Amino acid sequence: MTITLTSLDNVEFKVDKDVAERSILIKNMIDDIGETDAPIPLPNVSSAVLTKVIEYCEHHRHDPPQVQDESDDPRKRSNDIEEWDMKFMQVDQEMLFEIILAANYLDIKPLLDVGCKTVANIIKGKTPEEIRKVFNIVNDFTPEEEAQIKKENEWAEDR
Amino acid sequence: MNDAVRLPEILIAIGPHLSRRSLLASVSVSKTWKHIFEPLLWTLVELDEHDYANESIRRAMARNGKFVKNLNLKDIHKKTMDFVQHCTRLHTLRLNLPDTTGKELVISTLAKILQHNQETLCVLDSKYDFGWGPGICQTLLACPRLEALGIYESLTHMEVDHDFWKIVARLKRLSIVTLALHFLVGEQDTFPNLTHLHMITPHCWEPVSAALASRCPNLIELSVADYSNSILSAIERTVLPKCRNLSTLVVNCSETTSQSRASFFKKLPPMKHFGMSERFFKPTRNEKLPFSQEHFHALVHIDLKWCGWARSTTVQELLSSCPNLQSFKAERLSGRDIEYGDPWVCLRLEELWVAFIDVEVPSLGSWTPRPGIYRQLQRLERLQIFDQYMHLPEMSKEHSDRLDFRLGFGLEHMAIHRRLRKLRTGTSRQELSVKDIKWMIQAWPELEEVEGILHFKEAENTKLGRFLERNGIRYRTTDLVRYDEVYQAGF
């Protein structure tokens, strides 16, 4: 069965049902309204991003469903990202963030995890100034405020 | 950032994936980043006696107390409430107090904290014995979300009253550590909410842990340290028939007989997690586990450390029969049994703790490691923690005890273990060089910790340890003396 998805910029995408259902949002929509030929509108996702998301879902269409662990701490999960996923995530920063937002909206947890881990790896090991540089962020703290934050969080470092 | 409006959404999604260090850097990046990430820094707070003298911590707690979900108190002081009064949304409270702390102060502080956090508290874990009087029981009964309780009772026997069992009736998880237990569980009492039970009762001569477990029909996890002589058969007779959902069973006992073991294993249903240890080691003949394929396939975690009856052939059998193992701990595994045994099937193994024996063969006047061992180790591509320790006092000198971590002697066979995070080598005859350590750092990019004596010369050992630390890898020396003591004394 094929599902039609419509992106923000009105581009239609035809995908197999099992691929589309990697998105829990879409899965629930299909469960609620039943099988229909009417396209599902995704006003939050542009065609460029939706193309990438569909590519991910197609590659992972046969993955077993993830079991939600009660004590689900993402930091405790294995650190490694699959090679295909790593290559998939080699996109510019803007697209990376768009993919995370889309995965969040569409409720595709594995894709959200991979995207977030990728950003977490970018942040890892960097000083605040280096983080600002990478993400083009303006420092809106006064030097006094910055010093105070550092002092207050000093004791948190060893915990 | 191009899309400043949607930035918070992204940061919130990323938050749980950041390590503590990354969070600490991130809170200084900008005001938005601080606003979003700072609460995550305060989710877990630990306070000890030095912290109570620190005014800036007190002020920080005043501002951020509401974000604290997990609070660990290593000391309780008269100033403690000044620090924790702003914690009103605690999920978990742990007390890890020294025995010298005054009971009254603890009880009054605890009562206040419970009152402030009545609506949200789910877990109370106390490693301090303050007596389970009616006052505390009443306060706990007023915490509607309480689902997990940890009790430690040290000196006198523990008398519990009806209120205590009312609390237990609501719990999902219960942990009791007590030297003596005076239980008066009502005959009719069952605890259908209890799914996880953990009991350490070293001086009880009756199998009280089995008695309580058999009242919990929905038990999923049971872990006992019970030194009565009949715990294994008590579990077999009273727990296994009643607890049909049991998937984790860990038994620490004093000693078992081969009859009690044979009968027990015949009745044991397939388990996800099985562990056993015995205080007194008695050499036994090899016993075959009467497990079906269903048993082997169900096992994900096995812990047979300090388990005298699990001989090498049993250990080898488990490694070559259980395809879903994630962690495996066992006392001894002979290189000869590996070479002549079936290939290991536990390809998902992440943690391996084992004492190898008989790992080398004489060849041309020197010793080389049995290739069969590395051949099997190489199948474990997902290995993250490798803990191979050995120094079994009763082994003769002919049985070598070293798996070599030197290049040219076996280390290069471990290049495949790219996910290795922790390596522990407990043997005392390593002679690693800087070259070997450099190789390890290159080959194992995830390496976080190495423990062991890397060189038998102390100065060399220290130098190699420092080299590891300079490369961001924690290094600790194995305390072999400690191991021998522990081994001989039991627990």
Short recap of the structure:
Chain B: InterPro entries: F-box-like_dom_sf, LRR_dom_sf. The complex is a heterodimer of chains A (159) and B (491). Chain A is mainly alpha-helical and 159 residues long.
What does this structure look like?
- The complex is a heterodimer of chains A (159) and B (491).
- Helices cover 51% and strands 8% of the residues of chain A.
- Chain A is mainly alpha-helical.
- In chain A, a hairpin with a 5-residue loop joins strand 1 and strand 2 (12-16).
- In chain A, helix 3 crosses helix 5 (93-106) and helix 5 packs antiparallel against helix 6 (109-123).
- The model of chain A has no long low-confidence stretch (mean pLDDT 86).
- With 491 residues, chain B is an alpha/beta fold.
- Chain B has three domains: 42-189, Leucine-rich repeat, LRR (right-handed beta-alpha superhelix) (Alpha-Beta Horseshoe), CATH 3.80.10; 191-286; 300-491, Leucine-rich repeat, LRR (right-handed beta-alpha superhelix) (Alpha-Beta Horseshoe), CATH 3.80.10.
- In chain B, 32% of the residues lie in helices and 20% in strands.
- In chain B, helix 2 runs antiparallel to helix 3.
- In chain B, 35% of the residues are buried.
- The chains are: A mainly alpha (159), B alpha/beta (491).
- Chain A binds chain B through residues 73-75, 78-80, 94, 97, 100-101, 104, 112-113, 115-117, 119-120, 123-128, 131-132, 135-141, 146, 149-153, 155-157, 159, and chain B through 1-3, 6, 9-10, 13-14, 16-22, 24-31, 33-34, 41, 44-46, 51, 54, 56-57, 59-60, 384, 419, 446.
